[in-house]
Design a protein that fits this description.
4% of the residues lie in helices and 46% in strands. The protein is mostly beta strands. The protein folds into 3 domains: 2-61, Structural Genomics Hypothetical 15.5 Kd Protein In mrcA-pckA Intergenic Region, Chain A; 64-115, OB fold (Dihydrolipoamide Acetyltransferase, E2P), CATH 2.40.50; 122-169. The strands form 3 sheets. Strands 2-1-3-4-5 form a 5-stranded antiparallel β-sheet, with no helix packed on it. Strands 8-7-6-9-10 form a 5-stranded antiparallel β-sheet, with no helix packed on it. The protein starts with a helix and ends in a 14-residue tail after the last strand.
Length: 183
């Protein structure tokens, strides 16, 4: 622990492309960690039912992050403020829906690409016993009073019905590879 504190106090660790000096700074889903002296880059993703597992990424991807839209509000000036799964917020004139995912550039929080929640797009399961698995959306079911909005996805030749808050879109419709490395 003494060595970890020394490394962080010396400013040798970046989280989402920002140097962090607090040993207790929380790391979450899709966050990128950069170890400056060794030039190693890791993204935290779900894998094998573990909610946060570090995978090594290239230097090109260290400043890219997928963030899922959780809420949106209209603020002064008729701009839309989007709230994301990791607590970040962005003001935009573009119209996106809850459940969609945005690819952003860090640390500027600039939206590079919008990934819409639709049929035939790849999704990453981010919760539950299947966390870390990738599937393709077959059907989107609207929610009811007692049931949330759900998707039917094909995961490894199995069909699962999952609430949309347990998935994250990782590709556009009809593409077979994630937009960035997630496994």
């Amino acid at each position: 622990m003494h060595e970890a504190k020394k490394i962080i106090d010396d400013g040798k660790v970046k989280v989402d492309n920002i140097i962090r000096y607090n040993i207790n700074f929380a790391v979450g889903l899709m966050d990128t960690i950069e170890l400056i002296p060794s030039q190693q880059y890791y993204r935290f993703v779900p894998k094998n039912s573990l909610l946060l597992y570090p995978i090594e990424v290239s230097e090109d991807e260290k400043s890219l992050k997928l963030i899922k839209i959780k809420r949106k509000n209209i603020v002064k000036g008729n701009k839309i403020q989007y709230g994301f799964h990791d607590g970040k917020t962005i003001l935009s004139d573009s119209i996106y829906l809850g459940g969609d995912t945005c690819l952003i550039k860090l640390p500027d929080l600039e939206i590079i690409e919008h990934l819409k929640l639709e049929i035939d797009c790849l999704v990453l399961l981010i919760r539950g016993e299947n966390a870390g698995k990738i599937g393709k959306i077959q059907e989107i079911k609207e929610g009811t009073f007692s049931l949330p909005k759900r998707v039917v996805i094909l995961v490894e030749s199995r069909v699962l019905e999952i609430p949309i808050d347990a998935i994250m879109v990782i590709s556009k419709s009809n593409e077979n590879n994630p937009i960035i490395k997630v496994s």
